[in-house]
Amino acid sequence: MPVDRLLPTDESVDLLALVRDLCEHELAPHAARAEESETFPRDAFRTLGKAGLLGLPYPEQYGGAEQPYEVYLQMLEEIASAWMSVGVGVSVHTMTSYAVATLGTEEQKARLLPDMVGGELLGAYALSEPQAGSDISSLTTRAVRDGDSYVLNGTKAWISHGSHADFYTTFARTSDDPKHGISAFHVPGSAEGLSFGAPERKMGLTGSTTTLVNYDNVRIPAGNLIGAEGDGMRIALSALDSGRLGIAACAVGLAQAALDVAASYAKERQQFGHAIADFQGMQFLLADMSAAVESGRATYLHAARRRDLGRTFTREAAIAKLVCTDAAMKVTTDAVQVLGGYGYTREFPAERYMREAKVTQIFEGTNQIQRLVISREVLRSV
């Protein structure tokens, strides 16, 4: 059954209907085959872009839909429930567009945002490096000013959409100051000197290509610097707060899909002359799964509403990312258990959901990092 959502406006209700129609007809029917063949879903992103769904939280002035995060995240959850790789991709793209949308100059916004949020361009977020994951301050990719250009050299790792993206929001060092020497740049995917490693062979999200990105004397206009030199750390961390909410919503969508499969199977599967859904042990398991999904949804919506009100939400975003992704791992694992032997086969999607859930506890900051963020915010407020 569709999730009974509480949405703030008639416009958002209409948007939900559009998203559900696209999920049912354009996404869900292709998910299993594309994941099996590890095919990047570029056409799916084009479809969502044409429908205006790649710029949901950004200003209408530049082609976005100007929806509150409370609405955007619920639409994202619906997409992830139909096809997790696409949901994660929309979250990544939205986070990638954040730097220009919030800190770009008016010239940059007018020049770049319409295609970024209008679906013509797909973005990638190039922050992590082989030796700089959770420790952003240790990144070594460098950008050197040369007249009216910057020249970038280095390597980024674990980049979603690598080799498929049309632009890369890239964080590079412009001075040796660990925290204030990092700057943000808009790098076109066609830039000379940009190359890519072989796609990572992953446990799940196999339709979402992840690669190294190499910068070999990549020259870009100085006008592609986002913000001022040294603003990169602040931009990256601010974008990650919002990006963590995107992953939280995707995780809940995945968990909801797993719960739906498990509940449907439990009503159909007969043992000892009864549907297994009639047994109290199964009912309790499904109840715990449902409680985890609803708790996760409430947690990310609370953080989103704080964001929409302009209030701080760093702690709440970290809590949402932690709670929702841990819930996804548990619920998808339990779904496999409900299906028994069939859950371990590829005849049903439960095993794929379980494989896809694991990485949600890792990217956009591991859940151990979320605990550090939460504890620091708690202690700071005492």
From TrEMBL:
Gene3D superfamilies: Acyl-CoA dehydrogenase/oxidase, N-terminal domain (1.10.540.10), Butyryl-CoA Dehydrogenase, subunit A, domain 2 (2.40.110.10), Butyryl-CoA Dehydrogenase, subunit A, domain 3 (1.20.140.10). Residues 124-218 form the Acyl-CoA oxidase/dehydrogenase middle domain. Coiled coil: none annotated. Its cofactor is FAD. Residues 230-378 form the Acyl-CoA dehydrogenase/oxidase C-terminal domain. Pfam families: Acyl-CoA_dh_1 (PF00441), Acyl-CoA_dh_M (PF02770), Acyl-CoA_dh_N (PF02771). One of its GO terms (molecular function) is acyl-CoA dehydrogenase activity. PROSITE patterns: ACYL_COA_DH_1, ACYL_COA_DH_2. Residues 9-120 form the Acyl-CoA dehydrogenase/oxidase N-terminal domain. The keyword Ligase does not apply. Keywords: FAD, Flavoprotein, Oxidoreductase. Belongs to the acyl-CoA dehydrogenase family. This is Acyl-CoA dehydrogenase.
